[in-house]
Amino acid sequence: MRSIARLSSTGETLFFQLPTPLLLVKKLTTLTVLPNQPPNSIRQTNQSSTFIHTQHQQPFFKHQNLFYGKLFAQLKSPPHLFEAKRLHALLIVNGFFHPTSVDKVFGSQLVNIYVNFGCFQDALLVFDELPQKSNIAWNALLRGFVDMGQFSEAIQFYYLMLSQCINPDNFTYPLALKACSGLSALEEGRRVLELIQFNETQHNIQRNIYVECAVIDMFAKCGNLIEAWTFFEEMSRKDLASWSAMICGTVHNGEWLEALFLFKRMRFEGIGPDSVIVAALVPVCGRLEARYMGMTLHGCSVRSGFESDLYVSNALIDMYGKCGDTHDAHCIFCNMVYRDAVSWSTLIAGYAQNCMYLESFEVYLEMKSAGLRTNAITAASALPGLTNLKLLKQGREMHGYILKQGFEYDAVVASALIDMYTKCGSMREAEHIFEMALERDITTWNSLIVGYVLYGDLDLALGIFRRIWETKLRPNSITLVSILPLCTRMGTLGLGKEIHGYATKSSLKEVVSVGNSLIDMYCKCGYLELGVKIFNQMMVKNIVTYNTVISAHGIYGLGEQAFSIFEQMKEARIRPNKVTFVALLSACSHAGLIDRGFLLYNSMIDDYSIQPEMEHYSCMVDLLGRAGNIDDALNFIRRMPVEPDINILGSLLSACRVHNNVELAELVGEHILQKNLKDSGYYVLLGNIYASTKRWKDVSKIRTLIKEKGLIKKPGSSRIQVGGCNHIFHARGIMHPQLNKIQEILKSLLLEMKDEGYMPDQSSCSHDLAIDANELINLDSE
After folding, report:
1. Which helix (H) or strand (E) holds 193?
2. What confidence score (pLDDT) does residue 168 get?
3. Distance (Å, rounded) from C-alpha 410 to C-alpha 388?
4. Cβ atoms of 260 and 284 closer than 8 Å
5. How many CB atoms lie within 10 A of CB 570?
6. Where are the beta strands (DSSP E) in 42-182?
7. Torsion angle, alpha carbons of 247, 253, 255, 259, to 10
8. CA dist list (Å): 720 to 176, 489, 733
9. Which alpha helices (H) appear in 291-391, and where do they start and end?
10. Taking Cα atoms as reference points, which of 697, 675, 672, 694 lies closest to residue 683?
């Protein structure tokens, strides 16, 4: 091995390893050799001893020019490597590598040829032996370093080029800038730009559009979107390539709405998109769940004639899957002429994301039967289907395959495995996979957080969330959507507000699912006005957004406001689903709007072709029961085409208790007891009804049933955050450190209520609690 040593911009010596000399073709008789001397030494012989007649010079130079022209044409694009080596030998024989050769074209072009064929070591050898080197040779080696991903070496080679007083050209700059992008070396990229601008002002060397696009791409990939924007706006002319660079860079930085705005602006200026822009923007519509915009881009791709482009088709499958339209995703997949592993994996993942796990598994089996090999992406896409279909045996087989192929080190695969084991209740295995993962991306952390939530360990879930901040990673939209509901359940509103602030600063608030989670958190924590404020600020809203706000207003008893939002939803051309009508009927129930409830119930069936399910029946029974129309509720249940489930019977039983209809309660209670329930709540409810009418024998029977069935009533609990500290209260709990102080305040409040004429409503609480409240008052009054 040989090496060439060069000085870098920092003064360090750089070494580039070269291979042993090439074995040249031995039989040179098949090669074309130029007669007489090499081109640079033709006139080096003693002119006194050499006399060339004028009549002989013209045929000689004519033959020489013909030879050079033919050689140059062959060097442009040899069909295979063997031809390149033949041309290499030809250049050696004809003196192009002679130290006195002045040629800069042919040898440099040979370097370019070897780089094109992927023979980088051969290119380095030829480069080192060239007596004269043009920009073609320098740029070829620079491109070779970049293509191999050796970005540090590419930047060093760029500075070596400068140290040899070689002026970079418009082919050099994009390569150097791409190397800076690969290393996220923003300062190095700025230095390259400074040289571009210096040569432009001092030497009038004008940059072209490729250089400008490379500058935009460099700034964007280095995370400095502001400088990319500034450079883009200063460009005198913007063609499709520059718009593509700016839009793709904006997408790369997660500024999805800005990317869509740029696209609209580009279209307004009369520039049509290409497949690259569409393939970049369509997934953005999926992430924002902006289905209408995604359909617009789909139509644009059809009109422009690149809907059959592989990358565009894969992006469309992804978008429709994320927007919940698996039918259109499957249609695009079926119409594809060529499908790669990404196509199959995207459709598999799309079905899984929409809880269509059987379809996801069937597509995976179809892919295997088509002879395609399962790669890491496919494995990660197929695992959710296996998990939710409870195919643990197949899931473990997939885990074994992953281990054999070495896919377990892939962060996405590790996340899918963690998700599988957590949903199967094997937290120990999930934790083991997490700890063994060499590289953990944010998806891996998210999977463990969700696992702890499913396992019921909310404190550990929050602990994992806090550990993320100790790494270089930052929470993404999935992280926030997983954590925000915990803030509601644990009463940590302060943490919820901090997450809201982070979502705003990081632009994650623009993600529809994050906005929906923030609305849900604030509304459930008693801050309806903040939830509505976020709703009004959201640029993109989906069906979940409207359902969340409608449901929140219903819980607060604001029926008319809920109906107003429903009208806004229809104006936005979002079709209501079954969840929408559950929220609307629940709003009617809380507001006591019986007639409006029946209108909506009939509209759901007649106008939207949504057949009632148990949730709708339960809402109607609750609506009638809350209003005291117990008989109407009973008749509604009798007219149902299906047998009522426990929730419907429970709604009727609750209404009987509120309105003191013991006879019907007893009848409903018998039906409930016949179902042999594992939930003790309905037994307790029936027992309290008996207790309210002093039917102590029946109360005793219920208690005996509970004991015989081994049912345990989980005590109620509540949480509140005070001064950054979480306080948990359990029913009948006596372990709180400030219990005595709490009891003193409670006694004081009860006495004040008694002085103002209020007495406990014992019919609205359990029998035991009623006795405790009464004793508390009597004890203090004594």
Report:
1. helix 186-202
2. 93
3. 22
4. yes
5. 11
6. none
7. 10
8. 57, 10, 15
9. 291-304, 310-322, 326-335, 341-353, 357-369, 376-388
10. 672
Three-state DSSP at 721 gives strand
* Interval 672-700: pLDDT, tens: 777 766 777 778 888 888 887 788 888 88
Rg (CA), the chain: 38
As beta bridge partners, residue 7 has: 13
The segments of the chain whose pLDDT lies below 50 read: 1-58, 60-62, 768-782
Residues listed for the chain: 782
Distance, in Å, from the CA atom of 622 to the CA atom of 635, rounded to the nearest integer, reads 13
Contact by Cβ (8 Å): 458, 490? yes
Which amino acid, one-letter code, is at 305? G
Neighbour-count burial for 292-326, b at 16+ CB within 10 Å, e otherwise: ebbbebbebbeeeebbebbbbbbbbbbbbbbbbbb
d(CA 130, CA 132): 5
Distance CA 405, CA 377 (A): 12
* Amino acid symbol at 580: T
Which run of H or E residues covers position 14? strand 13-18
pLDDT digits (tens, 9 = 90+) for 37-66: 444 443 344 443 343 344 444 454 445 556
Tokens 């060397």 sit at which residue?
205
Name, in order, each residue with C-beta under 8 angstroms of 201's C-beta and a sequence gap of 6 or more.
Answer: none
Lookup: tokens for 201: 């002002």
DSSP class per residue in 476-490: -HHHHHHHHHHHHHH
The set of residues, in sequence order, having a beta carbon less than 8 Å from that of 203 and lying 6+ positions away, is: none
- Tokens at residue 490, please? 């644990």
The C-alpha atoms of residue 692 and residue 721 are separated, in whole angstroms, by 35
pTM of the model: 0.63
| Six token digits for residue 304 | 């422009």
Q: What is the pLDDT of residue 294?
A: 93
* Sequence spans of domains, the chain: 719-752
Distance CA 442, CA 479 (A): 8
What is the predicted pLDDT for the residue at 662? 82
Sequence-distant (≥ 6) Cβ neighbours of residue 470 within 8 angstroms: none
Cα separation, 174 vs 729, whole angstroms: 64
For the chain, the first-to-last Cα distance in angstroms comes to 103
Q: Which two tokens stand for residue 290?
A: 């902006």
Cα–Cα–Cα angle for 332, 333, 339, nearest 5°? Answer: 130
| Contact indicator for 132, 99 with CB cutoff of 8 Å | no
**What share of the chain has pLDDT > 70, as a percent?**
87
Token pair recorded at residue 639? 């007219």
Element at 584 (helix H, strand E): helix 578-591
Q: Closest by alpha carbon to 93, among 38, 145, 135?
A: 38
Residue with tokens 């290393």: 183
- DSSP assignment letter at 730: E
How does pLDDT run across 111-156, given as a tens digit for each residue?
999 999 999 999 999 999 888 899 999 999 999 999 999 999 999 9
Distance, CA of 666 to CA of 653 (rounded, Å): 9
Please give the structure tokens belonging to residue 548: 């969340």
Residue-level pLDDT at 66: 62
Q: What are phi and psi of 339, to 5 degrees?
A: -120, 135
Look at residue 720 in the predicted model and tell me its pLDDT: 75
**How far is CA 608 from its chain centroid?**
32
Exposed / middle / buried, residue 21 (Cβ in 10 Å: 0-12, 13-18, 19+): exposed
Residue type at 693 in one-letter notation: T
Residue 574 sits at φ, ψ, to 5 deg, of -100, 120
CA 755 → CA 11, 746, 747, 777, distances in Å? 90, 14, 12, 11
